[in-house]
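Retry 2 of 3 after timeout on previous attempt. Resubmitting C-alpha cells to design endpoint.
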C-alpha cells in the first residue's frame, strides 16, 4: 500500500514538473501561443504577445482574434478555424495582425485542434514573426528581377538591348520560316545627334534619346519590338509582315512622330531620323545578315539626304 501511494505521489510530482516545464517554456518563448475557442475568442494568450503586438494578455483575453486581423486575411482565418474545430487536424498559414501602435506584423502560424475528453473544444496556435524575413525576401526578389531586367534592357530608356533584340529576332525568323510569312528589321539613327549633345549637353541628349525611344515605340502600335543598340541607334523588329506596304506604313509613322516638335530646356529642336530596312527572307535569312543589311540601307537613306527611309538593295552597295 505504501509502495502504491509512493508511486502515485511520484507520478503526480513528475506531472507537476512536466506541466511547470511547459508553462515556463510557453511563458518565455518569443513565439506567440494562444488558445482560441470554437467561437474564435482567445481563452489563453502567451506573454510574448505584449512584446510583439503591444497588447497585454488581459487586454486580449476573451476578445475575438478577428479584431486585430488584417481584413484581407479574415476569410482565410475563419475557413482555417472552421476546419480545425470540425476535425482533428493541423493547418499552417500566414496572417497579418495589427499591433497596438498601428503597425502590421506577419505571423507564420500553425494551428492544431484542441481536444479535451474526446471532443474538440478549440484551437491551439503558435505564431512566429516573419515580417522582417518576408521584407528581405521581397527585396532580394526585386533585386534579382532588376538584375535580370538590366541584363536584357537598356538602362537609360528601359527598352530591350542588343542581346534581347537578337534573341527575339531569332524567334521571329524561326516562326516566319515555319508559317510562311515575312518579317523585317529597321535600323534607325538620329540625324545630327552629335550637334544636340554639343549644344545642349549630355543631360538633354539623354532626354532626347529617351523621348525618341518612346515615340518610336508608340509609332509601331504594338506590332513589333523596339530596341536601343547604342548611342542614338535604335532597331525595330516587325515579326510579322504580309508585304512591303506593311513595312512602309510603320516607317512612315515613325518618320511622322519623330518630325513632330521637340522641346529641350525651353528651345525647339529640329530633329529627324533616317531608317534602313531589311526584309526577311528576301534580304537575309538570319538575324546578323538582316541587321547588317538594314545598317547598309540606313547608309543609303543618309546618302539620299537623311530624314527618310530606304530598303536594302544590293545595287547601292556595289556603286
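Retry 2 succeeded. Sequence:
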Amino acid at each position: 500500500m505504501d509502495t502504491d501511494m509512493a508511486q502515485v505521489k511520484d507520478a503526480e510530482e513528475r506531472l507537476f514538473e512536466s506541466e511547470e516545464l511547459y508553462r515556463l517554456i510557453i511563458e518565455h518563448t518569443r513565439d506567440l501561443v494562444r488558445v482560441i475557442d470554437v467561437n474564435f475568442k482567445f481563452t489563453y494568450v502567451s506573454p510574448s504577445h505584449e512584446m510583439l503586438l503591444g497588447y497585454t494578455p488581459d487586454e486580449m483575453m476573451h476578445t475575438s482574434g478577428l479584431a486585430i486581423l488584417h481584413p484581407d486575411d479574415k476569410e482565410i482565418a475563419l475557413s482555417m478555424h472552421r476546419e480545425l474545430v470540425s476535425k482533428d487536424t493541423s493547418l499552417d498559414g500566414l496572417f497579418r495582425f495589427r499591433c497596438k501602435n498601428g503597425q502590421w506584423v506577419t505571423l507564420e502560424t500553425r494551428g492544431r485542434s484542441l481536444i479535451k475528453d474526446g471532443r474538440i473544444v478549440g484551437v491551439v496556435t503558435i505564431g512566429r514573426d516573419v515580417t522582417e524575413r518576408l521584407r528581405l525576401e521581397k527585396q532580394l526578389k526585386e533585386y534579382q528581377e532588376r538584375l535580370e531586367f538590366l541584363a536584357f534592357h537598356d538602362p537609360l530608356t528601359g527598352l530591350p538591348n542588343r542581346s534581347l533584340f537578337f534573341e527575339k529576332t531569332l524567334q521571329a525568323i524561326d516562326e516566319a520560316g515555319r508559317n510562311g510569312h515575312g518579317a523585317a528589321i529597321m535600323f534607325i539613327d538620329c540625324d545630327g545627334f552629335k550637334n544636340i549633345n554639343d549644344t545642349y549637353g549630355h543631360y538633354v541628349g539623354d532626354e532626347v534619346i529617351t523621348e525618341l525611344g518612346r515615340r518610336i515605340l508608340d509609332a509601331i502600335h504594338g506590332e513589333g519590338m523596339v530596341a536601343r543598340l547604342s548611342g542614338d541607334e535604335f532597331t525595330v523588329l516587325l515579326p510579322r509582315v504580309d508585304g512591303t506596304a506593311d513595312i512602309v506604313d510603320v516607317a512612315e509613322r515613325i518618320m511622322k512622330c519623330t518630325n513632330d516638335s521637340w522641346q529641350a530646356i525651353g528651345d525647339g529642336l529640329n530633329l529627324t531620323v533616317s531608317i534602313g530596312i531589311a526584309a526577311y527572307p528576301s534580304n537575309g535569312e538570319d538575324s546578323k545578315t538582316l541587321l547588317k543589311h538594314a545598317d547598309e540601307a540606313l547608309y543609303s537613306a543618309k546618302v539620299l539626304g537623311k530624314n527618310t527611309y530606304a530598303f536594302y538593295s544590293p545595287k547601292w552597295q556595289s556603286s
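Attempt log closed. Residues 31-134 form a domain with the Beta-Lactamase fold (CATH 3.30.450.20).
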